[in-house]
Design goal:
Layout lengths: L8 E2 L8 E11 L5 E11 L9 E3 L4 E7 L2 E2 L3 E2 L3 E3 L7 E9 L9 E5 L2 E5 L19 E8 L4 E4 L2 E6 L2 E10 L6 E4 L2 E8 L5 E8 L8 H18 L7 E7 L6 E2 L4 E5 L12 H16 L8 E2 L5 H19 L2 H20 L11 E2 L8 H18 L1 H15 L3 E2 L1 H12 L8 H4 L5 E9 L2 E9 L14 E8 L5 E10 L3 E6 L7 E4 L8 E4 L3 H10 L3 H22 L5 H12 L5 H8 L4 H10 L6 H18 L4 H8 L9 H21 L2 H9 L3 H13 L4 H11 L3 H13 L3 H12 L9 H13 L1 H4 L5 H14 L3 H7 L11 H15 L6 H11 L1
Parallel strand pairs: 2-12, 18-19, 19-21, 22-24, 25-31
Antiparallel strand pairs: 1-23, 2-3, 3-9, 4-8, 5-6, 5-9, 7-8, 10-11, 12-15, 13-16, 14-15, 17-18, 20-21, 25-26, 26-29, 27-28, 27-30
Helix pairs in contact: 1-2, 2-3, 3-4, 3-5, 4-5, 4-10, 5-6, 6-7, 9-10, 10-14, 12-16, 14-16, 15-16, 16-18, 17-18, 19-20, 20-21, 20-22, 24-25, 24-26, 25-27, 26-27
Bound molecules: arginine and zinc ion.
Arginine binds next to strand 20 and helix 2.
């Protein structure tokens, strides 16, 4: 069993630390098995402290010596930290500890990745480096001396000295310990420079292992664009002489915003046309922006405690989505974000892991780096902006920086600047932070004598620990279309505040067709009776591109639901609309690709479940297959031409327009493969000079079970490239037929290049299995068992990545009793594992309850 009684931490118990930390000096003597960390920390007792106990966090540290004001002391050390008697006047604490980076497989604290030293401290990893008040509201300036043989020795802030075997760094900006970073290795830099709008010259570097230096240019461009954008749009400038990014192969998450020294999962920064897909390029640009934007939203203004995580993450995701919208296509970005939100956040919000955007308790904070905190947190900011207006948003955010720069803040502080600068009462709005669950909005309408009335009724289902919900304020953007497709009322934001409320539009010549929740103005599920004819009308005419896509998406969903429930043939009108749309060259290719992309199988399962059916993953898969086959056949005559016409010629460029074309082209190829058995795909594979086309062709061939030659060729070509090999591992599982997915994944875990210790490789295989819905849930439960085996094996090495992957089981209550029993057995088996981590224990118990 896990720890006897896992401790729960509550927001309501927050108390400030009783000491001010004036300055921190750290010296690292690097050595793989025995790194010595010497700390010298100046503390001043706070005169008004409620709690004066002197507790320093510390885990897996071997204490060598401790002193107060130069005198040796003997603190009481436990597995969580130490306490010590300290003076009531300012004092200097010194300690020396020993740690072992090379055996640190949890990838938290100081660890080694392919021979280089690196750190990950957020959320609570600094306590694995030295004894410290490891909490975000304790901010201080750091001076760091690194002694080691590595060519490159980096830490936060500005360089303040270096010599043979040492380097020193000073960070003038007070920061919490979770933003501390250290990197040491034989690295190569891709350098550039940036001059801020007030004329400050900043040195920029992307540091990589030798061999990766040709994959930095795109990331550097993205960084420079981000720096410029934050100046232009938010007026925010960079504040150090140097900005470093380091690529690391073994990393639990995407990237980390350490002050002046961002550390990235190499998959989120390294890019080249030969090794990265269009999707990789777009994601890299967004993540570089995200981490850079944290310099203000996260670092200059940080969180008081970890319950406030969305304060920095929701806002920073919102900012990076604004950036991507500006760099690329805003409507394509919005549609993709909603697909992602529905796929990940709605699944979370409507299952056992549902939690508030600002949670009020946790056992392990690492389990709360979720789609709810990040993506729903960003949606909440989008709604706030829509409610107060763009100008008021800009004013309130400026006030936020003015009032709170250098502080550790709460959601209350954030909302207060909006209240103060707009005069608006946001108490009802704050329920978006305190109430979990996805609101449902039921819409009915009525037309009489030129007046059209929309009645909106909101309710939110119970979530764990929150049986009853109050009405929230929900911005519902609405436009009205006349019978000929013209817009008769432009977009207007209805503010739904009551449980049930009506809104009227008068002076209309005839009954309009409503376009509701334009741009997806709120993260809700809308329930409204409609017809396929009306949906097709909106797909053809709506001026709001999100709702055009949404109309097509609903048609796609309803067609499949009918196929699953009534064994209906694919809806003919919808097929017809689709074939027209595919051929319509006046439409943006990226938009066409999105309309052609089928609703996810998980989304369909959730829809069926909500309507009172037990989803059968195999039936959902079969419907998707039949639909795609029918569509391909309906397009028989035009597919070869459509495929040829959408093929992007010339040198590869990752820009949004070319990427959109290639996306559409890939969809044409996958339809064409259903007709030609893979001939065109094999040709594309041979001719491809970029990973986007090579990857798409291989996926089609594997799906058609006709890709053995190419899979081998791909392996031979790329076995030396870890990131490309992750694609190879993932594709085998993602493209497997349901029956074969679990055994394909099992075989891959036996492969010489499978490495449990590398999160990217683990996720490539196990993540792909979990995503292959019909494969994961295939009858008999082999998928469940394989995942559980691997989670149990990984938990002993890396709790964070294990716990995160447990969410594959979060939807289990949707399914039939046989599947539920199979999953329950695996969850109980995981839960009964000896020495299970706190991370995994918390996830499994929440999922089981
Ligand atoms: N703050 C990082 C980001 O969103 C995420 C780091 C989270 N890491 C963790 N181990 N929980 O940019
Ligand atoms: Zn972030």
């Amino acid at each position: 069993m896990a720890e006897a009684t896992p401790q729960t931490i509550y927001l309501k118990d927050y108390t400030p630390f009783g000491y001010q930390v004036d300055e921190v000096h750290l010296t690292f003597h690097l050595s793989p098995k025995a790194t010595r960390v010497v700390s010298r920390i100046e503390f001043t007792p706070k005169p008004d402290a409620v709690d004066r106990s002197f507790f320093l966090h510390g885990e897996q540290l071997q204490l060598i010596a401790a002193k107060i004001d130069g005198q040796p002391v003997s603190p009481d050390v436990t597995a969580q930290g130490l306490t010590c008697d300290v003076p009531s006047t300012p004092f200097v604490w010194e300690s020396e500890v020993e740690i072992s980076p090379v055996t640190n497989t949890a990838l938290e604290g100081l660890y080694m990745s392919n021979g280089m030293y690196c750190t990950q401290c957020e959320a609570e990893g600094f306590r694995k480096i030295t004894f410290y008040p490891d909490r975000p509201d304790v901010m201080s300036t750091f001076t760091v001396r690194i002694e080691g043989d590595e060519k490159v020795l980096l830490s936060n802030g500005n360089p303040s000295g270096s010599g043979e075997g040492w380097a020193e760094w000073h960070d003038p900006w007070p920061k919490p310990a979770y933003l501390f970073a250290l990197v040491a290795g034989d690295l190569i830099n891709h350098p550039d420079r940036f001059t801020t709008k007030s004329g400050k010259d900043v040195e920029l570097n992307i540091w990589v292992r030798p061999g990766d230096e040709d994959k930095c240019a795109f990331g550097m461009e993205a960084l420079i664009k981000s720096m410029k954008w934050d100046e232009d749009v938010y007026g925010l400038e960079y504040d150090l002489d140097i900005f470093n990014i380091v690529a690391v192969d073994d990393f639990n998450m995407g990237a980390m915003e350490n002050k002046g020294l961002n550390i990235f999962n190499s998959s989120c920064v390294l890019a080249s046309p030969e090794t990265s897909t269009d999707a990789n390029f777009e994601r890299i640009e967004a993540i570089i922006a995200h981490e850079y934007f944290h310099n203000w939203t996260g670092n200059r203004i940080t969180c008081r405690d970890w319950f406030q995580l969305c304060l920095k993450e929701g806002l920073t995701v919102y900012r990076d989505s604004q950036f991507t919208s500006d760099m690329r296509s805003a409507s394509v970005k919005r549609i993709s974000d909603v697909i992602d939100l529905r796929g990940r956040q709605f699944a979370e919000d409507n299952g056992p892991l549902a939690h508030q955007v600002r949670p009020e308790s946790f056992q392990e904070i690492n389990n709360f780096y979720t789609a709810t905190i990040y993506e729903k947190g960003a949606e909440v900011i989008g709604m706030l902006k829509r409610l107060v207006g763009d100008e008021a948003y800009t004013k309130a955010v400026a006030l936020y920086f003015e009032r709170h720069d250098g502080q550790a803040c709460t959601i209350e502080d954030w909302l207060q600047v909006f209240e103060d600068s707009t005069g608006r009462d946001l108490s009802q709005f704050s329920k978006w932070y305190s109430q979990a669950g996805t609101p449902r909005i039921k819409v009915t309408d009525d037309y009489l004598d030129g007046t059209y009335t929309l009645t909106l009724e909101q309710s939110t289902p119970a979530t764990p620990g929150q049986p009853d919900k109050d009405p929230r304020v929900i911005p519902v953007a609405v436009g009205l279309l006349g019978q000929n497709g013209d817009e008769v009322r432009g977009t207007e934001v209805l503010e739904l505040t009551e449980a049930k409320q009506s809104f009227s539009f008068d002076g209309l010549a005839s009954k309009p067709v409503p376009s509701i929740l334009r741009e997806f103005s709120a993260p809700v599920i809308m329930e409204r009776e409609s017809t396929n004819a009306e949906r097709a009308f909106l797909l053809a005419h709506d001026s709001d591109s999100f709702n055009r896509w949404e109309a097509g998406n609903t048609l796609a969903k309803e067609a499949r639901v009918a196929m699953v429930l009534d064994a209906a043939a694919p809806d003919a009108d919808y097929l017809d609309a689709l074939t027209k749309l595919v051929r319509d060259d006046s439409l943006d290719p990226a938009f066409r690709a999105l309309v052609l992309s089928p609703p996810s199988q998980s989304d369909l399962a959730q829809t069926l479940f909500e309507r009172g059916h037990t989803p059968d993953p195999q039936a959902i898969y079969d419907a998707a297959e039949t639909f795609a086959q029918t569509l391909a056949e309906a397009l028989t005559d035009s597919l070869p031409r459509l495929y040829a016409d959408t093929t992007v010629q010339g040198a590869y460029s990752p820009d949004a327009e070319s990427a959109g074309k290639r996306d559409l082209n890939a969809r044409m190829l996958s339809l064409l493969t259903r007709l030609d058995g893979g001939e065109a795909a094999a040709r594309q594979y041979d001719a491809a000079d970029n990973m986007t086309q090579q990857n798409a062709a291989l996926a089609c061939l594997l799906k058609a079970e006709n890709g053995e030659t190419q899979s081998q060729a791909f392996y031979d070509q790329w076995q030396g490239d870890r990131l490309v090999m992750d694609k190879w591992f993932g594709l085998q599982v993602a493209c497997s037929a349901p029956k074969k997915a679990a055994s394909a994944a099992a075989n891959l875990t036996e492969h010489a290049l499978f490495d449990l210790k590398n999160p990217n490789r683990f996720r490539a295989v196990m993540g792909a299995l979990a995503m292959n819905q019909a494969g994961f849930h295939y009858e008999g439960g082999a998928g469940y068992q394989l995942l559980a085996d691997n989670l149990i094996a990984l938990d002993a090495l890396n709790p964070q990545t294990t716990a995160r992957m447990c969410s594959a089981f979060q939807t289990w209550k949707r399914y039939d009793s046989t599947r539920q029993e199979l999953i329950r057995a695996q969850l109980e088996r995981i839960s009964a594992t000896n020495n299970l981590s706190r991370d995994t224990n918390e996830m499994v118990s929440r999922i089981l309850n």
